[in-house]
Structure formats: C-alpha cells, structure tokens
Design brief:
The structure is a homodimer. Chain A is an alpha/beta fold. In chain A, 38% of the residues lie in helices and 12% in strands. Chain A has a 7-stranded mixed sheet with strand order 2-8-7-6-5-3-4, sandwiched between helices. In chain A, strands 9-10-13-12 form a 4-stranded antiparallel sheet, covered by helices on one side. Chains A and B meet through helix 2, helix 5, helix 6 and helix 9 of A and helix 2, helix 5, helix 6 and helix 9 of B.
C-alpha cells in the first residue's frame, strides 16, 4: 500500500498522463503553489491572457465602437461552441451572458409562467444557496409553493429520492447536476424523465459539472439549464454564465426581463417588445466582450483536451485523493464528504473535519489552496486540465502534517 | 464668421482647453482617427489597460481564488466612488454589477412591488428601447397599465409635459436623464418633485448623463437610478452597469432576483433568503472583476478632470459642432435633432438627414466615427475627456464634403 501511495507513484501517474502537457498552457508564476480550487476559480491560460490583451488593446482600444459588429453575435456563437464542446447541445440552444443567478431567474420564471395552472416549485435542501433563493423569491412573488426535497448531504440525488415530491401540481423542478458541497452527481437522465412524466419542466444547474463531466443535455431531453464559466471553464472571476433552452421548448417559453438584446431587429428600436423567436429571446442587455472572449478561449482548451479524457483524469485524481485520505487522514478525524463511487462523483472531493475552517487557512498559508464550505467541509478541486497527481499528493501530505500537530 | 469657424480657430480652442492634456492618457494608436462615438463606447485609457493587465495576470493568474477577498467588496466600493465622483450620491447607495437592463428590471420591480395598490407605470415614447421593454414586460407580468407620455423627439422632457400622466394610480415613473436620441436633458429635479407629490416613485436612467453631466441624485431626492459605464465612463464593451437606491427608500424596497450576493452572511449559506439590509440587497450573482476594475479606472480619470470642467467642455464642443452645422450643413439638408440651448443638451448632438444611414457608413470609411440611430439620426458624441475641437472640425468638414457630393 505504501508504495502505491508514495510520491514516486504520483510522479509515475503524471508521467503516464496523456493530458500532462496541458499544464504548460497555463500561467504558473509560482510553481510551488498547490492549487486545489479549480472548482471555485479556474486558472488563467496563456492563450486567454493573450486573447484578452488583444480584445482590450486592439478590438476595444483600436477598433472602438466599430468592433461591435464582431462582438454582437458572441453570446450565441460562444454559446454554440460551449454547447458542442461541453454540454451535448446542438447549436441555437445556448447563450453566454449575465450571471448564473440572473440566468436561473430567467429560466425558472419562464418555466413557471408557461404552466400557470401548476402551483409548486421543487428543489432540494442541499442545492446551492443562490439556486434556492431564486426559486424562493419567485415562489413568494407568484404565490407558489416551494417544496424542498431533503437530499443526502453526501450521496447523489436519485429519481427515487425525489419521486414523492413530483406530482401534477408541479410546474418546475430544479437541481444541481454536480453538488457544490459533496460533488455527488445527480441522476440527470432519470430525474428529467420523471419530471416529464409528471408534465413539469426541469432546470439543471451545471456549474460544477461543465468542463469536468460529459453533460448530455440534448440526449437527456433537458428543458432548461444554466451554469457558470469561472470554474472548470477557466474564464476568470465573474465571467459571464450560460443558459440552455431546449429548442423544442423555445416557442412556449418567455423569460421575464424584456431587454433590447432579445428584441427582433434590435437596432430598429421598435415601439413594443417583439422578441427574437429563438434562444436570443433569453438575452437581455449588453454582454461583456472581455468575459465572452475568456469563455471562448477557456472552452477551446477544454475541447482540445476532450471532455472524456478530462473526466477520466478527474476520476483518477479524486480517487487518488480519497486513497490518500483513507491511508493518512481517516485516523486523524477526517471523513470523506463525497461519494466513494467515482461514477457518481464530480471532479472535486469534500473532506469533512470539525476544524475544517482553521485547517483551510493553515493550508493556504503553506501554499496549498483548497476552499472551505460551511460547516465542516474542505473542498479539493484538482482541475484535470492543469493539476498533477503530485499536487494531490502534496496537498494531502500537507494536510496530514497539519492535522497531526 | 468664417474666421471663428476655421480650423485654426479650433486649434486655438484646443490650446486654451484646460483638459487638453488628458487626451494623452488614452490609447490612441491611430492619431488620424476622428472618434465621435464616446457616447456609445468610450475610449480605452492607458491606466485601464495597465490595471486590467494586472488584474488578469497577478490577481487572477497569480492570486487565483485567494484574491476574492479583495474582489468581494468591489461592487459597493466602486459604486461609492462612482457615486461621489459623478452622481452626487453619498456612500451606501450605489452598486456596480449586472447590465443596465437587469438593473432597470430590479429597480422597477422593487418600486412597483412597494406600492401594490397602484396599477400604473409611466414612461415616455422616446425613452431608450430597453427601458420601455422592461416596464412593458413588468406591466404584462403584474397586470399593470403602461402609460406612455408622448415626448418631444428633439426638446427636453419637462414636468409640464408629464404632469397629466402622473396621478394617484401611478406606482412608478421612469425616464432617461439625457435622451439617447436627442441628447435633451430632462428636468430631473422638477419631475422627481412632481412624482413625489403624487406619492409615486421615480427611476432615472443615467446612461447618457453619467460622466458628462453633474448628476445630483441625493440633492434631487431621486428614489432609484441606473446607468451604464461603457460610454463616458470608458469602462469598455459590456462593462457592468450601476444602480442607485436612495438610502431613505432602501428599507421599503426589495428587488425580485434573490441571489447569494444579496444574502446576509453570504458564506453561511443559510437555508432561507435573508437579505442584507442596505444597498447590497440589490446585488444578485458574481460580479465581473475585470469590468469592475475598468469602471474604477475610468471614473478615477473623470474625477481627476472634474465633472464640472467636463460638462463645460462638453457644452463648448457641442456648441462648436452646432455652429459648424449651421454654417455648412443646414443648406445641405441637415437639421439639428438636439436642443440648441446648451443648458438642456448633453454631450452628444444628433444631426438629422434623410440619408443618415448611408452618410454614417461613408464617414466611418473615411476615419470619422459617429453612429447612426434610426430613422435619420447621425449621433456625434465628442467625449470631453479625450476629444479635441479639431476633431469636431474635421468631422463636420468630412461630413460637409460627403453631403455636397
């Protein structure tokens, strides 16, 4: 066992890693930094830094307003590329714009307004805060009932766990594909089927899945989805989020924030709102050109790596991390807060410990960067595109020495 | 007259301009470009380019998730600076985040939800499209009536023009401070008073005012305001917008998009939405760090110039432009689509001509960049901070030679 968990073994895993070379495509000024928070803010790639410099200097500084001709189609263009590379979504169904929360609001409101006779929204108690708050607000505003499924804080959400909550009163069901807290992967295809059999619509938050797990929106017949781009897509702090609306649902769904970027013949500036027929109706205001360029570069690199290879490496990295936990940390008061079955685990791992908050600060001080999530979770997100097995080894080694003190 | 309108006279005006030196603070790769669209997309400053490079490389690339400690307060911090430098707003009332349209939606919804017994929203037919569409959508959703004031397409909106529309049924009145089309300045203090006497709330769109006109939100007792930062604030394509909520109104107003950035003790991730008591309640999702940095740099430069000096130069530039129009263009089929009285005119001028669309394209081909707005407007926005009197002269000279062909 020791041999298999030695640092030399980690080095061998890196030597055999077909994606190892991609680490060199990132800006890494401090090679001693062990970065384990790719699930919160992804790294900056060299291509992204260069692309942003061009957008800033040449496209904005030089081209000025003339470049808007190029920028205008970006939300849909980058959305199509994201859909193809990472979401299993055919063109015309994804746009990149606004924040994840604003997109959740637009999509959730569109769904419940399409089924006005149904008076219930379903989500789960372990869902990410903003996802819960958005539907809480919509339920209050529209006089609907919010039905909370109590989900497992460690294991994945299954169709069985939610079936009792989903009946003919339900308009909208919304869950996260990969749990921000536990990393557990909800059974998207089965839950989507269940929701459809009840005549309701489903909205998936893909924030912790996109770029780390091969999402199949079209194949799963998902109605609506949203997600952020600053985690595994590496598009930078506050980069614009995306939303997906299934082409078959687009004619019946209308989002509530009526803006000029959703207007047909936008620059005709007509007297009344007359929305674009397709996904563009879900656009609202002016989208950030810098952020869109960063999303474009980020997804290009992921597409080059290939989502299946990224997933495979994600499984290997997190499995290695859990093996090290079992060998070193279990006896120091830790427990794994994520599924042990890699088939239901995303690309991060939560380790739970009563002193997690303090340990997180101590790790960061020593150049190992995970993050802390209340009440007792240390989250380690070794982004497959830029993280080595030795990084995982070094992180666990540092944690073991801190916890043993 | 000829002498006063010669290019030599324009050069003399530049020589006497106390703000002339500020042009050197901008990235100007092509000195022959005559940029007249500062009211649509402002120029890139050297400081902004450098700041963005630092945010990208050092704060994101090097600091990674650790920098969020610095970025988190930016929406309020930059909002306070914007409020002080350009809006006449004391701290704690402005945040920078989201697009102008999303901010319009949040503010308009907050106002009408605060006065549920009142069933009318008032705006004007010449208001910017997205402003009209947002309230059209809210009126539809809430079952309210949208009352459209027919405003003058050239002259300013006065309290007299809107008084008939504002009665005890009105919840919200929303107008633009400076018209995107005509550049006319609405009488904000008088209209705000009128709205308050009717017991309604007012929401001002400052997009074409901020950075070009000394807005006095607190002194005018404005309830709510929004505006963009990519025009005179020079924060770049799609930079985040701002919103203002008067401190006295904050306790009674709640915006409808309940997100985790408006949540008290955000990272406690509590089970129910429990909003921050102040302006932070109007935040929703993750704000773009790059865009916020650009807003900060943009407003710093404007603060250095001083809004009163910028206003003074804006009046001089637009007056010079109108004088040249009168001397050269009136006889070629043009007419001024903006107020002639500089006291009611913002920092851009609309010239109307049946062939405006074609003339705009021809100007751009010759290196003079205004923009076109349907149906017949050429808009010239000589941003005071970076535009010379000779630029105005060259633009009008080019237009005269094109129109005379």
């Amino acid at each position: 066992v020791t041999e298999r968990l030695s640092r030399a073994a980690a080095e061998q895993l890196d030597d055999a890693d077909p994606l190892a070379g991609l680490r060199d495509r990132f800006v890494i000024d401090d090679p001693s930094l062990v970065y384990m928070d790719g699930n919160s803010l992804g790294r900056l790639s060299i291509a992204t830094e260069q692309r942003l410099a061009r957008v800033i200097r040449q496209e904005w500084g030089g081209g000025l307003v003339r470049t808007w001709e190029d920028w205008l189609p970006w939300p849909g263009l980058v959305g199509d590329r994201l859909g193809e590379a990472l979401l299993g979504a055919a063109p015309g169904q994804v746009v990149v714009s606004d924040s994840t929360t604003v997109n959740l609001y637009k999509c959730a409101a569109a769904a419940i307004d399409a089924l006005p006779e149904r008076r219930v929204i379903v989500t789960d108690s372990e869902n990410f805060p903003t996802d819960r708050y958005v539907v809480e607000g919509l339920a209050r505003e529209r006089g609907l009932t919010l039905r909370m499924v109590r989900s497992d804080p460690v294991g994945p959400l299954t169709a069985e766990m939610v079936s009792d909550a989903i009946d003919g009163d339900v308009a909208l069901v919304t869950f996260s594909h990969v749990s921000f807290a536990s990393s557990a992967i909800a059974d998207m295809p089965a839950i989507t089927d269940l929701v459809h059999r009840a005549g309701a619509l489903v909205l998936w938050d893909l924030s912790h899945a996109v770029g780390s797990y091969p999402v199949e929106l079209d194949a799963s017949n998902v109605d609506l989805a949203v997600g952020c781009t600053y985690k595994y897509v590496n598009a930078g702090p506050g980069a614009p989020a995306f939303l997906y609306v299934n082409r078959a649902r687009q004619p019946e769904l209308r989002q509530p924030i009526w803006g000029w970027f959703g207007q047909r013949d936008q620059f005709e500036m007509g007297p009344a709102y007359d929305p674009e027929p397709g996904i563009a109706q879900f656009l609202v205001g002016t989208s950030p050109a810098l952020g869109l360029a960063a999303v474009d570069e980020g997804l290009k690199l992921l597409a080059e790596a290939g989502i299946d290879r990224l997933r495979e490496k994600g499984v290997a990295l997190t499995s290695f991390l859990i093996d090290l936990h079992d060998a070193w940390l279990a006896e120091l008061g830790f427990r794994v807060g994520s599924p042990r079955d890699p088939a239901t685990r995303g690309s991060h791992v939560a380790l739970r410990h009563p002193e997690a908050r303090k340990l997180c600060a101590a790790l960061i001080e020593r150049g190992v960067v995970p993050d802390f999530r209340t009440p007792d979770r240390l989250r380690f997100g070794p982004a497959p595109i830029s993280t080595r097995f030795v990084d995982v080894w070094d992180a666990m080694d540092c944690l073991r020495s801190l916890a043993a003190q």
